[in-house]
Amino acid sequence: xxxxxxxxxxxxxxxxxxxxxxxxxxxxxxxxxxxxxxxxxxxxxxxxxxxxxxxxxxxxxxxxxxxxxxxxxxxxxxxxxxxxxxxxxxxxxxxxxxxxxxxxxxxxxxxxxxxxxxxxxxxxxxxxxxxxxxxxxxxxxxxxxxxxxxxxxxxxxxxxxxxxxxxxxxxxxxxxxxxxxxxxxxxxxxxxxxxxxxxxxxxxxxxxxxxxxxxxxxxxxxxxxxxxxxxxxxxxxxxxxxxxxxxxxxxxxxxxxxxxxxxxxxxxxxxxxxxxx
Length: 277
What we know:
It is a single chain. By secondary structure, the protein is of the alpha/beta class. The protein is built from 10 helices and 14 strands. The strands form 2 sheets. Strands 5-4-3-2-1-12-13-14 form an 8-stranded mixed β-sheet.
């Protein structure tokens, strides 16, 4: 495909655009500016909630759109306006919560976008350091759930933290036909497994598809770069796709590989399609 035909570039944030110091390299930053100067739409698609994404990105960061919470919300970065959001209905929030409680799983119920950094949490008191660290990070926004008294409301997502066992994924997936379950490696300890439960149409891939239709960009004009399991839908949707070399081995077997997030992986992938100066 000719280089000129690509009109949008989408990148994951943690472990992809951000290096291990949670910074964007000078090389990758220059590439983002170059894309903007050449009218290529720049999108970050992250699993982070809106509040967390804003902590990582300065107000003048060189992008055009932010897809956050794995696609639960889309923010027009230049106009500073939320343009798309989705939620789980209260009856499903109640049912899924009860299943997790019965299986003694630690989890959090997040408020609707864009206030989804606020959440109720259920703690089993089993050893789960990653779960406790996340509560500590958001302690001013976290309230402990009282299952006997709580009236469940709509929610942007439910997030369960598993130290290792993931057998519950299929049980929940099979019980509900209108939810999306995304497996993510914890960005906090890089080891624990997060089960993120969203409405069925929430994923980075769906978010990109929605955005492309809105701004009239064809699927054939898209490129993405990712690093983790919650990027799979995004990678499968875009015409060209890469995972950084620090991605899990099974993802590197499925998708083309570029440099690591420590070695300007974002730019190394795009070098094949754009004439960076």
